[in-house]
């Protein structure tokens, strides 16, 4: 009997790749998505990869009745919670939307889990909880800084809500995965990142510029204290990230403690500058990218990358894909999208 794992936001970028890995590892992913930031075509992509129609509920995590329906119709063994708004800039403009969706949504999910005795929760957190760290690489003990956006703050609050729930004596085993910068796509090019409107992330902007959908790419700032003056990030292939979620579910299932909360960094353990990312893309694709150097962007962290010892030790997990692998898969996905449109 395959164990049912509820993946909230399961049609989104990371959620869809996690659903594939869950299936490959013998789990049965059940998707909940309101399709506000994803497309229904993703479900066809999932079927093309796995040969299976995943059960998908269309609905909103803020609606307790949809969660009641899912939990009452399926024996849910664990929840991987992605359903959250995630654009830093938009969160500054619409803070209440972000607090309502990301914070209240998590509370609704936790209430449903409690009601139906579901104990295993993987929470999608973010390296934004560290702000601009004092020391690199960032470890799980690095102090959390005041968030530089409402989005980042919702991730900090989310972790605190789960931790307080565990402290209250609730039967809940939960790990918050603080991930760094997910990029890439499934090697089949059936699923990948689908930014609606102008991308907020570097790699879709690179691929859309190379495909002629954008005139040029602006690199924000070239006077940072880094080897080439551009910001440093820890770019992780989305399939590596997906694998980490499956390993985390296994870890929770096998953990004898009945109630606990922990945080784990998920990254490659090394940083690349924005220009290194661009040159890596140019190298694997043979495309010359039209980019220019612009002024710094408000709120950007200068450099951040993960210390990954804890994920290797606890989850028996480490990344397999290189930056070039990620760029190649992203470009193949972009070309597939361009052919479709």
In CATH, what is the homologous superfamily of the domain at 4-183 and 236-267 and 309-319? NAD(P)-binding Rossmann-like Domain
Q: How large is the share of residues in beta strands?
A: 15-25%
Distance between the termini: 40 Å
Percentage of residues assigned to helices: 40-55%
Number of helices: 11
CATH fold topology of the domain at 4-183 and 236-267 and 309-319: Rossmann fold
Evaluate the radius of gyration.
Answer: 19 Å
Mind telling me the CATH class of the domain at 4-183 and 236-267 and 309-319? Answer: Alpha Beta
Largest sheet entry: 7 strands, parallel
Spatial sequence of strands, sheet with the most strands: 3-2-1-4-5-6-11
Mean of pLDDT? 95
What structural class do you assign from the helix and strand content? alpha/beta
CATH architecture descriptor name of the domain at 4-183 and 236-267 and 309-319: 3-Layer(aba) Sandwich
- Succession of helices and strands: EHEHEHEHHEHEEHEEEHEEHEHH
């Amino acid at each position: 009997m395959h164990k049912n794992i509820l993946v909230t936001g399961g049609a989104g970028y990371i959620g869809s790749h996690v659903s594939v890995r869950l299936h490959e590892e013998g789990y049965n992913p059940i998707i909940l998505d309101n399709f506000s930031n994803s497309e229904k075509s993703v479900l066809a992509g999932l079927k093309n990869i796995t040969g299976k129609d995943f059960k998908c509920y269309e609905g909103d995590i803020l609606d307790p009745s949809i969660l009641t329906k899912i939990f009452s119709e399926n024996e849910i063994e664990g929840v991987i919670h992605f359903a959250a708004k995630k654009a830093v800039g938009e969160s500054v403009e619409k803070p209440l939307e972000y607090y309502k969706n990301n914070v209240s949504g998590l509370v609704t999910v936790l209430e449903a889990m409690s009601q139906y005795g579901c104990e295993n929760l993987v929470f999608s957190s973010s390296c934004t909880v560290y702000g601009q760290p004092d020391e690199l690489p960032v470890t799980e003990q690095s102090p959390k800084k005041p968030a530089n956006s409402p989005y980042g703050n919702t991730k900090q609050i989310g972790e605190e809500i789960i931790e307080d729930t565990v402290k209250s004596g609730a039967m809940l085993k939960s790990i918050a995965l603080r991930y760094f910068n997910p990029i890439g796509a499934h090697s089949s090019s059936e699923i990948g990142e689908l930014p609606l409107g102008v991308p907020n992330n570097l790699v879709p902007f690179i691929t859309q510029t190379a495909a002629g959908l954008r005139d040029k790419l602006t690199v924000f700032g070239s006077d940072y204290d880094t080897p080439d003056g551009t910001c440093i990030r820890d770019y992780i292939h989305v399939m590596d990230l997906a694998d980490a979620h499956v390993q985390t579910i296994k870890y929770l299932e096998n953990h004898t403690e009945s109630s606990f909360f922990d945080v784990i960094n998920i990254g490659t353990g090394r940083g690349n500058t924005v220009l290194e990312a661009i040159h890596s893309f140019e190298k694997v694709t043979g495309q010359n990218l039209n980019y220019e150097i612009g002024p710094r962007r408000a709120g950007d962290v200068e450099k951040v990358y993960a210390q990954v010892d804890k994920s290797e030790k606890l989850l028996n997990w480490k990344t397999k894909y290189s930056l070039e692998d990620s760029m190649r898969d992203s470009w193949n996905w972009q070309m597939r999208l361009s052919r479709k449109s």
